[in-house]
Specification:
Blueprint lengths: L7 E4 L6 E4 L2 H12 L4 H13 L6 H13 L3 H13 L5 H13 L3 H14 L4 H18 L4 H17 L4 H10 L1
Antiparallel strand pairs: 1-2
Helix pairs in contact: 3-4, 3-5, 4-5, 5-6, 6-7, 7-8, 8-9
């Protein structure tokens, strides 16, 4: 602790049972004094610019940003981040689910089905993944192939499994009742 810095004693773990706490204002004043900056406004502006320029390229960050875009229905924005997260080796089934949603709503149902299958494979007890797979199989089968019996049967099975996994979810139950 630097001499001359005001502090208060607070209860803390350890031999003495107390510690020292310095207010944020006092920490700021000490920092500015030691770095000898006169123009604080300029320093704050430089700091904010520095932080804004840090790229967020880690797989986990790309996954989170991609999922956020999916939840906000910004599917075209989501795809590059989710692709990058998956290519970097992310093993989170939500990456495939999110990319599946983005692909489905971007008019790429075959890619969506492939991603939903991967999400279900990675987390077979997730009813949301099964519901999404069911929905995409059903919609794709009805739209692009005029109703495929195999896709319809699998869509019904996935919907039934989603209901079994989450029987309290009205949306899953209504969907299952609609397509069976």
């Amino acid at each position: 602790m630097k001499k001359g810095v005001p502090y208060t004693r607070i209860p803390a773990a350890g031999k003495s049972g107390s510690g020292k706490s310095v207010s944020p204002e006092d920490i700021r004043a000490l920092l500015l004094k030691n770095i000898k900056v006169k123009d604080v406004e300029k320093l704050e502006k430089q700091w904010k610019t520095f932080i804004a320029e840090i790229s967020i390229d880690g797989p986990e960050a790309r996954l989170k940003r991609g999922l956020r875009a999916v939840y906000q229905w910004e599917f075209e924005d989501a795809l590059p981040d989710l692709d990058a997260a998956i290519e970097a080796g992310i093993q989170d089934p939500r990456a495939y689910w999110g990319r599946g949603r983005a692909n489905f709503w971007s008019g790429k149902p075959d890619k969506a089905i492939e991603d939903f299958r991967k999400a279900v494979e990675m987390d077979p007890l997730n009813p949301s993944f099964r519901y999404s797979l069911s929905e995409s199989l059903h919609m794709d089968g009805m739209m692009s192939r005029g109703g495929n019996d195999k896709d319809a049967a699998e869509a019904t099975l996935q919907a039934a499994l989603a209901v079994e996994l989450d029987p309290e979810n009205d949306r899953y139950r209504e969907w299952y009742d609609e397509i069976r």
